[in-house]
C-alpha cells in the first residue's frame, strides 16, 4: 500500500529534510520519519520526499510517500506514528494513493512562505522562526518588484553560486505578501525552485524596498541585458516554511488560518 504523508515540522533542530550519510551524525526529518516507521512496523522503510528543505527550514505541508503493509488503515497513521515522533515533527495527514504516485516527480508546484518581523529583535522562543529587521521599507516598490518576478523567467541570478542545476528557467505564478501585526508574510508559488532561490528572492525584494537595490537593475537582470548573481542577498533559513506541495491527484492539506493568506492566493491552484 502506497501512502502519502503530509508532514509539519519545526526545522530548528534538523539538518534539513534529506537523510545524510550514515557517518555524518546529522539529524534530518527523513531519518526521524523512517525511524518512527521502523519502530511502528518493525522493519526498515524508506520515505521519498517532495524535495529537500535546507537546514533550519520549517514546513506546514511537506509531502512524502512510502510503501507500507496494509494492516494499519492509512487514515490512522497520524495517530499511530504520534508516539514515535519527536514533539517538533508531526504527520498531519495520511492518504492511500495509487502505486504510481510519486511525491517528488508528481509535484506540479510548491508554495513557500517567509516571515519577516518588522522589529529589531525576536523573543527567545521565536528565534529561528522568523527574520527580524528594523529597516523601513516602501511596500509599493516591493509589490512592483514582485510583479516583475512573477511569470516565466531565467532565474540564473537567484541561485547559490556554483549550483549544478541543469536549467534555471522557472515559472512563478504567485508572489505577494500580507501584513499581520508586526509581521510580513511573503508567499511564493512556483513550478520549481533553485538552491536558495526563495531566500534570495525575498532578500532582493527587501533590498529594493529599502532602496539599496534599484528596480531597474532587477528588470535588466530578468530581461538578460545584465548578467549578475544575487546570492549575497539571501536571507537566513529561519523564516522560511514549505507551506504546500501541489499535485494533480492530491488536494493539499489546509493548515488553517495561520499564517494569514494574501488576497488572491488559492491553495488548490
Automatic annotation (TrEMBL):
Gene3D superfamilies: Pseudouridine synthase I, catalytic domain, C-terminal subdomain, Pseudouridine synthase I, catalytic domain, N-terminal subdomain. Substrate binds at residue 112. The keyword Zinc-finger does not apply. GO terms for biological process: tRNA pseudouridine synthesis. The active site is at residue 54. InterPro entries: PsdUridine_synth_cat_dom_sf, PsdUridine_synth_TruA, PsdUridine_synth_TruA_a/b_dom, PsdUridine_synth_TruA_C, TruA/RsuA/RluB/E/F_N. Pfam families: PseudoU_synth_1. One of its GO terms (molecular function) is RNA binding. Keywords: Isomerase, tRNA processing. The keyword Nucleotide-binding does not apply. Its EC number is 5.4.99.12. Homodimer. This is tRNA pseudouridine synthase A. It comes from Candidatus Carbonibacillus altaicus. The lineage of its organism: Bacteria, Bacillati, Bacillota, Bacilli, Bacillales.
Amino acid at each position: 500500500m502506497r501512502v502519502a504523508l503530509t508532514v509539519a515540522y519545526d526545522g530548528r533542530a534538523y539538518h534539513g529534510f534529506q537523510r545524510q550519510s550514515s557517518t555524518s551524525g546529522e539529524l534530518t526529518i527523513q531519518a526521524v520519519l523512517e525511524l518512527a516507521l521502523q519502530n511502528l512496523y518493525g522493519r526498515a522503510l524508506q520515505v521519498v520526499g517532495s524535495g529537500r528543505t535546507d537546514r533550519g527550514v520549517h514546513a506546514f505541508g511537506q509531502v512524502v510517500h512510502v510503501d507500507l503493509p496494509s494492516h494499519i488503515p492509512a487514515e490512522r497513521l497520524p495517530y499511530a506514528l504520534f508516539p514515535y515522533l519527536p514533539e517538533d515533527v508531526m504527520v498531519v495527514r495520511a492518504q492511500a494513493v495509487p502505486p504510481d504516485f510519486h511525491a517528488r516527480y508528481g509535484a506540479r508546484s510548491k508554495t513557500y512562505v517567509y516571515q519577516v518581523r518588522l522589529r529589531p529583535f525576536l523573543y527567545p522562543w521565536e528565534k529561528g522562526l522568523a527574520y527580524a529587521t528594523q529597516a523601513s521599507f516602501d511596500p509599493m516598490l516591493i509589490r512592483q518588484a514582485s510583479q516583475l518576478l512573477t511569470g516565466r523567467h531565467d532565474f540564473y541570478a537567484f541561485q547559490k553560486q556554483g549550483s549544478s542545476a541543469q536549467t534555471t528557467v522557472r515559472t512563478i505564478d504567485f508572489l505577494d505578501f500580507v501584513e499581520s501585526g508586526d509581521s510580513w508574510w511573503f508567499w511564493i508559488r512556483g513550478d520549481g525552485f533553485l538552491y536558495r532561490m526563495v531566500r534570495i528572492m525575498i532578500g532582493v525584494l527587501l533590498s529594493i524596498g529599502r532602496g539599496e537595490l534599484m528596480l531597474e537593475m532587477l528588470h535588466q537582470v530578468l530581461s538578460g541585458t545584465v548578467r549578475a548573481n544575487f546570492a549575497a542577498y539571501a536571507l537566513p533559513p529561519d523564516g522560511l516554511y514549505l507551506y504546500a506541495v501541489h499535485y494533480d491527484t492530491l488536494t493539499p492539506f489546509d493548515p488553517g488560518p495561520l499564517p494569514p493568506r494574501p488576497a488572491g492566493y488559492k491553495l488548490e491552484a
